[in-house]
Amino acid sequence: MGTWRPKDEAELAAGWSLWLELSTRVWPDPSWDGTPADAIRQVRDLLSACEQIRSSYEAEAAAPSVALLQLLQSMTFVASFPVDLWHDDTHPLDVERAALLHGDLASFAEHVAGVRAALARGGGWASLDAERRPWGLPVD
């Protein structure tokens, strides 16, 4: 993942918002109905939040940061395959399809972890995850 450092308040706020959004929305939540489409719902909700962050940031920033915009765009790019593949699959999962869905979500989760790590390093928030997880487990 690339290097990012906020250059002004607008960029800092957008980076912080993105970091917070990415902390909880990768895997299905307890309301999941067991279908791939519903598992992808949370990813789509995350992409919507990323779009809102991007729109607000571009409206506020005099000269938007290419690095931050690339981090935001990478979310849509990386999620596009699993979203396109699973968004309309409303059939309950069998073992084989569950493994495939899990693999797609795990790949997305790995990307999210990389984006969060880049944001945490650049924004100075890396210690927040260490404090939240004092037993030394990885952030994501």
Folded structure, characterized:
This protein is an all-alpha fold and 140 residues long. 68% of the residues lie in helices and 0% in strands. Helix 1 (9-21) runs antiparallel to helix 4, helix 2 runs antiparallel to helix 3 and helix 3 runs antiparallel to helix 4. The longest helix is centred in the last third of the chain and has 29 residues, at 95-123. The radius of gyration is 16 Å and the shape is elongated. The chain starts with 8 loop residues before the first helix and ends in an 8-residue tail after the last helix. Residues 133-140 have low confidence and may be disordered.
Summarize the SSE layout with pairings.
Layout: H1 9-21, H2 36-60, H3 66-86, H4 95-123, H5 126-132
Helix pairs in contact: 1-2, 1-4, 2-3, 3-4
Q: List SSEs in N-to-C order.
A: HHHHH
Q: Mind summarizing the main beta sheet? A: none
What fraction of the residues are assigned to beta strands by DSSP?
A: under 5%
Task: Give me the Rg, rounded.
Answer: 16 Å
Low-pLDDT runs of 5+ residues are 133-140
Kindly state the mean pLDDT as a whole number? 88
Please tally the β strands and state the result: 0
**Ends apart, CA distance between termini:** 15 Å
Please count the helical segments. Answer: 5
Shape: elongated
Specify the helix fraction band: 55-70%
In oligomeric terms, what are we looking at?
single chain
Look at the helices and sheets and give the structural class.
mainly alpha
